[in-house]
Request: fold
Amino acid sequence: MPDRPLSPTPSSPMLLTRRGVLGLGLGAVAAAVLASCTPAPQWVTPTGAAVSGTEKNRGGTGRVTTVDLTAAPTTLDLAGTAAATWAFGGIPAPVIRLTAGDTLKATVRNQLDADTSVHWHGLALRNDMDGVPPVTQAPIAPGGQFAYEFVTPHPGTYWFHPHVGPQLDHGLYGALIIDDPDEKVTWDDEWVLILDDWLDGVTATPDQVLTDLSKGMGDMGGMGDMFMRMGNLLMGATSDLLGGDAGDVYYPHYLINGKPKADPAQFTGTPGSRVRVRIINAGSDTAFRFAIGGHSLTITHTDGFPVVPAVVDSVLIGMGERYDLLVRLNDGAFPIVAQAEGKQDRALAVLRTGAGTAPVSGTTIPELSAGRVGLATNLTAAAHVSLRDTTPDRIIHLALTGGMQAYDWGIDGRRFDVRDPMRDAHAINEGERVQLQILNDTKMWHPFHLHGHTYQHPDGGPRKDTSIILPGQTLKVDFEADNPGLWVAHCHNIYHAESGMTALVGYRS
Ligand SMILES: [Cu+2]
Reply:
Protein backbone atom coordinates (compact mmCIF):
# COMPACT_ATOMS: atom_id res chain seq x y z
CA MET A 1 0.00 0.00 0.00
CA PRO A 2 1.54 3.37 -0.95
CA ASP A 3 1.99 6.03 1.69
CA ARG A 4 -0.88 8.45 1.69
CA PRO A 5 -0.44 12.18 2.21
CA LEU A 6 -1.77 13.51 5.48
CA SER A 7 -4.03 16.47 5.63
CA PRO A 8 -2.79 19.69 7.20
CA THR A 9 -6.36 20.28 8.35
CA PRO A 10 -6.50 20.57 12.13
CA SER A 11 -9.18 19.49 14.59
CA SER A 12 -9.30 15.74 14.00
CA PRO A 13 -7.67 13.40 16.47
CA MET A 14 -6.99 10.85 13.75
CA LEU A 15 -4.79 11.62 10.80
CA LEU A 16 -6.94 12.31 7.80
CA THR A 17 -6.28 11.16 4.28
CA ARG A 18 -6.87 13.53 1.39
CA ARG A 19 -10.02 11.57 0.68
CA GLY A 20 -11.06 12.27 4.27
CA VAL A 21 -10.54 15.99 3.68
CA LEU A 22 -12.73 15.91 0.59
CA GLY A 23 -15.49 14.43 2.66
CA LEU A 24 -15.47 17.39 5.01
CA GLY A 25 -17.16 19.86 2.69
CA LEU A 26 -16.27 23.11 0.97
CA GLY A 27 -14.84 25.02 3.90
CA ALA A 28 -12.35 22.31 4.68
CA VAL A 29 -11.46 21.93 1.02
CA ALA A 30 -10.76 25.66 0.82
CA ALA A 31 -8.55 25.37 3.87
CA ALA A 32 -6.72 22.44 2.33
CA VAL A 33 -6.17 24.37 -0.90
CA LEU A 34 -4.90 27.38 1.02
CA ALA A 35 -2.57 25.16 2.98
CA SER A 36 -1.26 23.65 -0.22
CA CYS A 37 -0.04 27.10 -1.37
CA THR A 38 2.69 26.75 1.20
CA PRO A 39 4.43 23.41 0.62
CA ALA A 40 2.98 21.41 3.49
CA PRO A 41 4.97 18.20 4.04
CA GLN A 42 3.50 14.96 2.80
CA TRP A 43 4.06 12.68 5.73
CA VAL A 44 4.97 9.04 5.90
CA THR A 45 2.10 7.11 7.48
CA PRO A 46 2.75 4.64 10.30
CA THR A 47 0.90 1.87 8.45
CA GLY A 48 2.42 2.69 5.06
CA ALA A 49 5.01 1.04 2.82
CA ALA A 50 8.01 3.01 4.09
CA VAL A 51 7.50 1.65 7.60
CA SER A 52 6.74 -1.93 6.57
CA GLY A 53 9.64 -1.89 4.08
CA THR A 54 12.08 -0.78 6.78
CA GLU A 55 10.83 -3.56 9.02
CA LYS A 56 11.31 -6.09 6.22
CA ASN A 57 14.90 -4.88 5.79
CA ARG A 58 15.57 -5.51 9.49
CA GLY A 59 15.26 -9.19 8.72
CA GLY A 60 15.68 -10.73 12.13
CA THR A 61 16.27 -14.21 13.47
CA GLY A 62 12.76 -15.49 12.84
CA ARG A 63 12.49 -16.55 16.48
CA VAL A 64 9.32 -15.30 18.16
CA THR A 65 8.63 -14.51 21.81
CA THR A 66 4.94 -14.28 22.64
CA VAL A 67 3.61 -12.47 25.71
CA ASP A 68 0.21 -11.43 27.02
CA LEU A 69 -0.12 -8.17 28.91
CA THR A 70 -3.40 -7.28 30.60
CA ALA A 71 -3.81 -3.77 31.96
CA ALA A 72 -6.19 -4.14 34.91
CA PRO A 73 -7.00 -2.77 38.35
CA THR A 74 -5.03 -4.39 41.18
CA THR A 75 -3.68 -3.62 44.63
CA LEU A 76 -0.06 -3.04 45.63
CA ASP A 77 1.04 -4.18 49.09
CA LEU A 78 3.08 -1.34 50.58
CA ALA A 79 4.48 -2.95 53.74
CA GLY A 80 1.01 -4.05 54.82
CA THR A 81 -1.00 -1.16 53.39
CA ALA A 82 -3.00 -1.92 50.24
CA ALA A 83 -2.88 0.70 47.49
CA ALA A 84 -5.47 0.46 44.72
CA THR A 85 -3.78 0.91 41.36
CA TRP A 86 -3.47 -0.29 37.76
CA ALA A 87 -0.81 -2.71 36.53
CA PHE A 88 0.16 -5.32 33.93
CA GLY A 89 -0.24 -8.26 36.30
CA GLY A 90 2.41 -7.19 38.81
CA ILE A 91 4.49 -4.20 39.88
CA PRO A 92 6.71 -4.26 38.03
CA ALA A 93 5.31 -6.54 35.32
CA PRO A 94 7.30 -9.75 34.72
CA VAL A 95 10.49 -9.06 32.77
CA ILE A 96 10.15 -9.61 29.01
CA ARG A 97 13.38 -11.02 27.62
CA LEU A 98 14.53 -11.92 24.12
CA THR A 99 17.61 -11.69 21.91
CA ALA A 100 18.26 -8.89 19.43
CA GLY A 101 16.69 -9.72 16.07
CA ASP A 102 13.95 -11.80 17.65
CA THR A 103 10.33 -10.84 17.11
CA LEU A 104 8.17 -9.80 20.05
CA LYS A 105 4.47 -10.57 19.77
CA ALA A 106 2.65 -8.90 22.64
CA THR A 107 -1.11 -8.97 22.93
CA VAL A 108 -2.23 -6.12 25.18
CA ARG A 109 -5.70 -6.40 26.68
CA ASN A 110 -7.37 -3.43 28.31
CA GLN A 111 -9.44 -4.19 31.41
CA LEU A 112 -9.28 -0.59 32.63
CA ASP A 113 -12.12 1.89 32.41
CA ALA A 114 -9.93 4.16 30.29
CA ASP A 115 -8.19 4.05 26.90
CA THR A 116 -4.61 2.80 27.02
CA SER A 117 -1.62 1.69 24.90
CA VAL A 118 1.89 0.29 25.31
CA HIS A 119 5.02 2.19 24.28
CA TRP A 120 8.30 0.24 24.05
CA HIS A 121 10.58 2.89 25.50
CA GLY A 122 13.93 3.32 23.74
CA LEU A 123 13.44 0.80 20.95
CA ALA A 124 14.03 1.94 17.36
CA LEU A 125 11.13 -0.25 16.29
CA ARG A 126 8.62 -0.02 13.44
CA ASN A 127 6.59 3.14 13.82
CA ASP A 128 3.11 1.57 13.86
CA MET A 129 4.10 -0.43 17.00
CA ASP A 130 5.34 2.62 18.96
CA GLY A 131 2.14 2.85 20.99
CA VAL A 132 1.46 6.60 20.77
CA PRO A 133 -2.25 7.36 20.24
CA PRO A 134 -3.46 9.06 18.14
CA VAL A 135 -0.24 9.39 16.12
CA THR A 136 0.80 5.76 15.54
CA GLN A 137 -2.39 3.88 16.48
CA ALA A 138 -5.88 4.36 17.83
CA PRO A 139 -6.00 3.95 21.61
CA ILE A 140 -6.96 0.54 22.98
CA ALA A 141 -10.49 1.09 24.27
CA PRO A 142 -11.80 -0.47 27.51
CA GLY A 143 -12.48 -4.13 26.81
CA GLY A 144 -10.37 -4.01 23.65
CA GLN A 145 -6.99 -5.38 22.72
CA PHE A 146 -4.08 -4.65 20.39
CA ALA A 147 -1.51 -7.06 18.95
CA TYR A 148 1.98 -5.54 18.94
CA GLU A 149 4.47 -7.36 16.72
CA PHE A 150 7.95 -6.15 15.77
CA VAL A 151 11.56 -7.17 15.29
CA THR A 152 13.76 -6.02 18.21
CA PRO A 153 16.49 -3.98 16.54
CA HIS A 154 19.15 -3.46 19.23
CA PRO A 155 20.27 -5.20 22.41
CA GLY A 156 19.99 -3.43 25.75
CA THR A 157 17.90 -2.45 28.75
CA TYR A 158 14.51 -1.08 27.73
CA TRP A 159 11.08 -0.86 29.32
CA PHE A 160 7.42 -0.45 28.48
CA HIS A 161 4.58 1.71 29.71
CA PRO A 162 1.35 3.27 28.39
CA HIS A 163 1.49 6.46 26.34
CA VAL A 164 -1.93 7.77 27.35
CA GLY A 165 -2.36 10.56 29.92
CA PRO A 166 -0.37 10.17 33.15
CA GLN A 167 -1.03 6.39 33.27
CA LEU A 168 2.68 5.74 33.73
CA ASP A 169 2.29 7.03 37.30
CA HIS A 170 0.07 4.05 38.11
CA GLY A 171 1.89 0.71 38.24
CA LEU A 172 1.71 0.12 34.48
CA TYR A 173 5.34 -0.65 33.64
CA GLY A 174 7.85 -3.45 33.17
CA ALA A 175 11.36 -4.17 31.92
CA LEU A 176 12.18 -5.30 28.38
CA ILE A 177 15.66 -6.86 28.25
CA ILE A 178 17.17 -7.59 24.85
CA ASP A 179 20.25 -9.78 24.97
CA ASP A 180 23.20 -9.17 22.68
CA PRO A 181 24.14 -12.26 20.62
CA ASP A 182 27.67 -10.77 20.42
CA GLU A 183 27.91 -9.80 24.11
CA LYS A 184 31.48 -8.97 25.20
CA VAL A 185 30.75 -8.41 28.89
CA THR A 186 30.59 -11.40 31.26
CA TRP A 187 28.89 -11.53 34.64
CA ASP A 188 27.86 -14.09 37.27
CA ASP A 189 24.42 -12.77 38.26
CA GLU A 190 22.04 -10.23 36.87
CA TRP A 191 19.52 -8.02 38.64
CA VAL A 192 16.90 -5.72 37.10
CA LEU A 193 15.99 -2.82 39.40
CA ILE A 194 13.06 -0.58 38.55
CA LEU A 195 12.93 2.65 40.53
CA ASP A 196 9.62 4.45 41.02
CA ASP A 197 7.99 7.32 42.85
CA TRP A 198 4.65 6.15 44.23
CA LEU A 199 1.42 7.89 45.21
CA ASP A 200 -1.39 6.00 43.44
CA GLY A 201 -3.98 4.70 45.87
CA VAL A 202 -2.20 6.33 48.82
CA THR A 203 -2.49 10.11 48.55
CA ALA A 204 -4.12 10.59 45.12
CA THR A 205 -4.44 9.24 41.61
CA PRO A 206 -2.23 10.51 38.78
CA ASP A 207 -5.24 12.27 37.22
CA GLN A 208 -5.88 14.13 40.47
CA VAL A 209 -2.23 15.20 40.62
CA LEU A 210 -2.37 16.48 37.04
CA THR A 211 -5.53 18.43 37.90
CA ASP A 212 -3.83 20.00 40.94
CA LEU A 213 -0.64 20.85 39.05
CA SER A 214 -2.58 22.31 36.14
CA LYS A 215 -4.03 25.01 38.42
CA GLY A 216 -0.51 26.49 38.51
CA MET A 217 1.33 28.03 41.39
CA GLY A 218 0.81 31.61 40.27
CA ASP A 219 -0.15 33.10 43.63
CA MET A 220 2.17 31.15 45.90
CA GLY A 221 4.95 33.71 45.55
CA GLY A 222 8.11 32.96 47.47
CA MET A 223 6.63 29.91 49.24
CA GLY A 224 8.50 27.77 46.74
CA ASP A 225 11.77 28.26 48.63
CA MET A 226 10.55 26.38 51.72
CA PHE A 227 10.71 22.59 51.64
CA MET A 228 7.17 21.50 52.44
CA ARG A 229 4.27 19.42 51.26
CA MET A 230 1.11 21.19 50.09
CA GLY A 231 -1.47 18.51 49.27
CA ASN A 232 -0.14 16.65 46.26
CA LEU A 233 2.54 19.24 45.58
CA LEU A 234 6.04 19.40 47.00
CA MET A 235 7.56 22.85 47.43
CA GLY A 236 11.23 23.71 47.69
CA ALA A 237 12.73 20.42 46.46
CA THR A 238 16.05 21.55 45.03
CA SER A 239 19.21 19.85 43.77
CA ASP A 240 22.53 21.27 42.65
CA LEU A 241 22.98 18.31 40.30
CA LEU A 242 19.66 19.18 38.63
CA GLY A 243 20.33 22.92 38.55
CA GLY A 244 17.57 23.98 40.98
CA ASP A 245 13.96 22.76 41.22
CA ALA A 246 14.21 18.95 41.42
CA GLY A 247 10.50 18.09 41.21
CA ASP A 248 7.10 19.32 42.25
CA VAL A 249 5.00 16.27 43.14
CA TYR A 250 4.74 14.87 46.67
CA TYR A 251 5.22 11.09 46.79
CA PRO A 252 4.63 9.19 50.04
CA HIS A 253 6.74 6.23 48.84
CA TYR A 254 9.77 5.51 46.70
CA LEU A 255 10.06 1.94 45.43
CA ILE A 256 12.62 -0.52 44.12
CA ASN A 257 10.86 -3.35 42.26
CA GLY A 258 7.53 -2.41 43.80
CA LYS A 259 8.83 -2.53 47.40
CA PRO A 260 8.91 0.39 49.84
CA LYS A 261 11.77 0.91 52.28
CA ALA A 262 9.69 -0.52 55.15
CA ASP A 263 9.63 -3.85 53.28
CA PRO A 264 12.73 -3.63 51.12
CA ALA A 265 13.49 -5.85 48.13
CA GLN A 266 16.20 -8.39 48.97
CA PHE A 267 19.17 -9.28 46.76
CA THR A 268 21.59 -12.05 47.66
CA GLY A 269 24.93 -12.97 46.14
CA THR A 270 28.36 -14.46 46.67
CA PRO A 271 31.31 -12.33 47.80
CA GLY A 272 33.67 -11.73 44.90
CA SER A 273 31.08 -12.45 42.23
CA ARG A 274 30.29 -9.92 39.50
CA VAL A 275 26.71 -8.74 39.05
CA ARG A 276 25.23 -6.91 36.09
CA VAL A 277 22.72 -4.43 37.52
CA ARG A 278 20.18 -3.00 35.07
CA ILE A 279 18.48 0.10 36.48
CA ILE A 280 15.37 1.72 35.02
CA ASN A 281 13.85 4.94 36.33
CA ALA A 282 10.09 4.45 35.93
CA GLY A 283 9.32 7.50 38.06
CA SER A 284 7.14 10.34 36.86
CA ASP A 285 8.60 13.37 38.68
CA THR A 286 11.75 12.09 40.41
CA ALA A 287 15.40 11.76 39.44
CA PHE A 288 17.23 9.19 41.53
CA ARG A 289 20.84 9.17 42.68
CA PHE A 290 21.68 5.46 42.90
CA ALA A 291 24.42 3.92 45.05
CA ILE A 292 25.27 0.67 46.81
CA GLY A 293 26.86 1.15 50.23
CA GLY A 294 30.41 -0.19 50.36
CA HIS A 295 30.69 -0.67 46.61
CA SER A 296 31.88 1.23 43.57
CA LEU A 297 29.92 0.94 40.32
CA THR A 298 31.21 0.46 36.79
CA ILE A 299 28.88 1.97 34.20
CA THR A 300 28.89 -0.19 31.05
CA HIS A 301 25.74 0.96 29.20
CA THR A 302 23.19 3.73 29.23
CA ASP A 303 19.83 3.57 27.44
CA GLY A 304 20.80 0.15 26.09
CA PHE A 305 24.01 1.21 24.33
CA PRO A 306 27.58 0.50 25.54
CA VAL A 307 29.93 3.19 26.83
CA VAL A 308 33.62 3.20 27.68
CA PRO A 309 33.42 1.71 31.19
CA ALA A 310 33.42 4.39 33.91
CA VAL A 311 33.94 3.73 37.63
CA VAL A 312 31.73 5.88 39.88
CA ASP A 313 30.35 5.99 43.43
CA SER A 314 26.79 6.89 42.40
CA VAL A 315 24.83 7.55 39.23
CA LEU A 316 22.14 10.16 38.49
CA ILE A 317 19.15 8.70 36.62
CA GLY A 318 16.37 10.85 35.21
CA MET A 319 12.89 9.56 34.41
CA GLY A 320 13.02 7.17 31.45
CA GLU A 321 16.81 6.71 31.58
CA ARG A 322 18.50 3.34 32.07
CA TYR A 323 21.97 2.47 33.32
CA ASP A 324 23.72 -0.90 33.31
CA LEU A 325 26.39 -1.36 35.98
CA LEU A 326 28.90 -4.05 36.86
CA VAL A 327 29.41 -4.52 40.59
CA ARG A 328 31.96 -6.78 42.31
CA LEU A 329 30.22 -7.91 45.51
CA ASN A 330 31.83 -7.46 48.92
CA ASP A 331 31.15 -9.63 51.97
CA GLY A 332 28.35 -8.58 54.32
CA ALA A 333 25.01 -6.75 54.26
CA PHE A 334 24.71 -3.48 52.36
CA PRO A 335 22.08 -0.85 51.49
CA ILE A 336 21.04 -0.39 47.87
CA VAL A 337 19.78 3.18 47.77
CA ALA A 338 17.96 5.30 45.22
CA GLN A 339 17.97 8.79 46.70
CA ALA A 340 15.01 10.85 45.46
CA GLU A 341 17.18 13.72 44.26
CA GLY A 342 16.29 16.93 46.10
CA LYS A 343 13.23 15.37 47.76
CA GLN A 344 14.75 14.31 51.09
CA ASP A 345 13.55 10.72 50.81
CA ARG A 346 14.77 7.51 49.24
CA ALA A 347 14.06 4.02 48.01
CA LEU A 348 15.90 1.19 49.73
CA ALA A 349 16.73 -2.43 48.96
CA VAL A 350 19.05 -4.82 50.78
CA LEU A 351 22.11 -6.61 49.39
CA ARG A 352 23.27 -9.57 51.45
CA THR A 353 26.30 -11.74 50.69
CA GLY A 354 27.17 -12.77 54.24
CA ALA A 355 26.67 -11.96 57.90
CA GLY A 356 25.92 -8.47 59.11
CA THR A 357 23.12 -6.25 60.36
CA ALA A 358 20.55 -5.35 57.74
CA PRO A 359 20.86 -1.70 56.78
CA VAL A 360 18.07 0.69 57.72
CA SER A 361 16.70 3.49 55.60
CA GLY A 362 18.30 6.34 57.54
CA THR A 363 21.81 4.96 57.11
CA THR A 364 24.37 7.45 55.85
CA ILE A 365 25.68 6.26 52.49
CA PRO A 366 29.11 7.82 51.89
CA GLU A 367 28.90 6.88 48.21
CA LEU A 368 25.95 9.27 47.75
CA SER A 369 28.02 12.29 48.68
CA ALA A 370 31.32 11.12 47.19
CA GLY A 371 32.79 13.01 44.26
CA ARG A 372 32.42 10.44 41.50
CA VAL A 373 28.81 10.93 40.31
CA GLY A 374 27.95 9.15 37.08
CA LEU A 375 26.44 11.69 34.67
CA ALA A 376 25.65 11.07 31.01
CA THR A 377 27.60 14.19 30.07
CA ASN A 378 30.81 12.55 31.37
CA LEU A 379 30.42 9.32 29.38
CA THR A 380 31.93 8.28 26.04
CA ALA A 381 30.21 5.95 23.57
CA ALA A 382 31.89 2.61 22.89
CA ALA A 383 33.68 2.94 19.54
CA HIS A 384 31.53 0.41 17.70
CA VAL A 385 28.28 2.29 18.44
CA SER A 386 29.63 5.81 17.83
CA LEU A 387 27.96 7.51 14.85
CA ARG A 388 30.10 8.33 11.82
CA ASP A 389 31.79 11.71 12.01
CA THR A 390 29.89 14.00 9.66
CA THR A 391 28.13 17.34 9.59
CA PRO A 392 24.34 17.28 9.97
CA ASP A 393 22.15 17.67 6.90
CA ARG A 394 19.46 19.28 9.00
CA ILE A 395 19.35 21.08 12.33
CA ILE A 396 16.11 21.25 14.29
CA HIS A 397 15.88 23.78 17.10
CA LEU A 398 13.55 22.98 19.98
CA ALA A 399 13.10 25.23 23.01
CA LEU A 400 11.62 23.72 26.15
CA THR A 401 9.34 26.42 27.56
CA GLY A 402 6.81 27.15 30.29
CA GLY A 403 6.86 27.01 34.05
CA MET A 404 5.17 26.18 37.32
CA GLN A 405 3.31 29.50 37.65
CA ALA A 406 0.81 28.72 34.89
CA TYR A 407 1.79 25.06 34.48
CA ASP A 408 2.11 25.78 30.78
CA TRP A 409 4.99 23.44 29.91
CA GLY A 410 5.45 23.36 26.14
CA ILE A 411 7.90 23.48 23.27
CA ASP A 412 8.66 26.74 21.46
CA GLY A 413 6.03 28.45 23.58
CA ARG A 414 3.20 26.21 22.45
CA ARG A 415 1.50 23.28 24.12
CA PHE A 416 1.28 20.06 22.11
CA ASP A 417 -2.30 19.35 21.07
CA VAL A 418 -3.00 15.62 20.78
CA ARG A 419 -6.13 16.46 18.77
CA ASP A 420 -3.87 18.09 16.15
CA PRO A 421 -0.54 16.29 16.51
CA MET A 422 0.92 17.34 13.13
CA ARG A 423 0.35 21.07 13.73
CA ASP A 424 3.96 22.06 14.50
CA ALA A 425 5.63 18.85 13.29
CA HIS A 426 9.25 19.05 12.17
CA ALA A 427 9.85 17.40 8.79
CA ILE A 428 12.94 15.31 8.04
CA ASN A 429 13.93 13.06 5.15
CA GLU A 430 15.02 9.46 5.38
CA GLY A 431 18.80 9.17 5.03
CA GLU A 432 19.60 12.52 6.60
CA ARG A 433 21.90 13.10 9.54
CA VAL A 434 19.73 15.19 11.83
CA GLN A 435 20.87 17.31 14.75
CA LEU A 436 18.46 18.35 17.49
CA GLN A 437 19.49 21.46 19.38
CA ILE A 438 17.34 21.45 22.49
CA LEU A 439 17.42 24.61 24.60
CA ASN A 440 16.01 24.36 28.11
CA ASP A 441 14.48 27.84 28.32
CA THR A 442 12.85 27.16 31.70
CA LYS A 443 13.89 27.29 35.35
CA MET A 444 13.70 23.53 35.83
CA TRP A 445 15.51 20.45 34.50
CA HIS A 446 13.78 18.14 32.00
CA PRO A 447 14.49 14.53 30.90
CA PHE A 448 14.09 14.82 27.13
CA HIS A 449 13.10 11.62 25.26
CA LEU A 450 13.06 10.93 21.50
CA HIS A 451 11.10 7.98 20.14
CA GLY A 452 12.30 5.58 17.46
CA HIS A 453 16.02 6.52 17.48
CA THR A 454 19.08 6.47 19.69
CA TYR A 455 20.91 9.77 19.19
CA GLN A 456 24.46 10.56 20.24
CA HIS A 457 25.59 13.23 22.67
CA PRO A 458 28.20 15.66 21.28
CA ASP A 459 31.94 15.04 21.13
CA GLY A 460 31.70 11.26 21.11
CA GLY A 461 29.32 11.18 24.07
CA PRO A 462 26.95 8.30 24.81
CA ARG A 463 24.20 6.99 22.56
CA LYS A 464 20.93 7.71 24.36
CA ASP A 465 17.21 8.16 23.92
CA THR A 466 16.53 10.08 27.14
CA SER A 467 18.74 12.90 28.44
CA ILE A 468 18.74 15.27 31.38
CA ILE A 469 18.86 18.90 30.25
CA LEU A 470 19.54 21.46 32.97
CA PRO A 471 17.96 24.94 33.11
CA GLY A 472 19.49 27.36 30.61
CA GLN A 473 21.49 24.67 28.86
CA THR A 474 21.37 23.52 25.24
CA LEU A 475 21.90 19.85 24.37
CA LYS A 476 22.94 19.07 20.80
CA VAL A 477 22.37 15.47 19.74
CA ASP A 478 22.75 13.78 16.36
CA PHE A 479 20.84 10.86 14.91
CA GLU A 480 20.62 8.99 11.62
CA ALA A 481 17.17 9.31 10.06
CA ASP A 482 16.88 5.61 9.26
CA ASN A 483 13.52 4.71 10.80
CA PRO A 484 10.66 6.33 8.88
CA GLY A 485 7.54 7.30 10.75
CA LEU A 486 5.96 9.93 12.95
CA TRP A 487 7.89 10.14 16.21
CA VAL A 488 7.14 12.18 19.29
CA ALA A 489 9.87 13.76 21.39
CA HIS A 490 8.91 14.92 24.85
CA CYS A 491 9.81 15.56 28.44
CA HIS A 492 9.64 12.32 30.45
CA ASN A 493 8.27 14.14 33.46
CA ILE A 494 4.87 12.68 32.65
CA TYR A 495 3.06 15.73 34.05
CA HIS A 496 5.14 18.09 31.90
CA ALA A 497 4.51 15.92 28.84
CA GLU A 498 0.76 15.92 29.53
CA SER A 499 0.83 19.69 30.04
CA GLY A 500 2.20 20.01 26.49
CA MET A 501 6.00 19.60 26.50
CA THR A 502 5.89 17.35 23.44
CA ALA A 503 7.04 17.80 19.86
CA LEU A 504 6.77 15.63 16.76
CA VAL A 505 9.44 14.76 14.21
CA GLY A 506 7.96 13.29 11.04
CA TYR A 507 9.52 11.76 7.95
CA ARG A 508 8.45 13.15 4.60
CA SER A 509 7.02 10.55 2.28
CU1 LIG B 1 9.90 18.49 31.92
Observations:
- The longest helix spans residues 26-37.
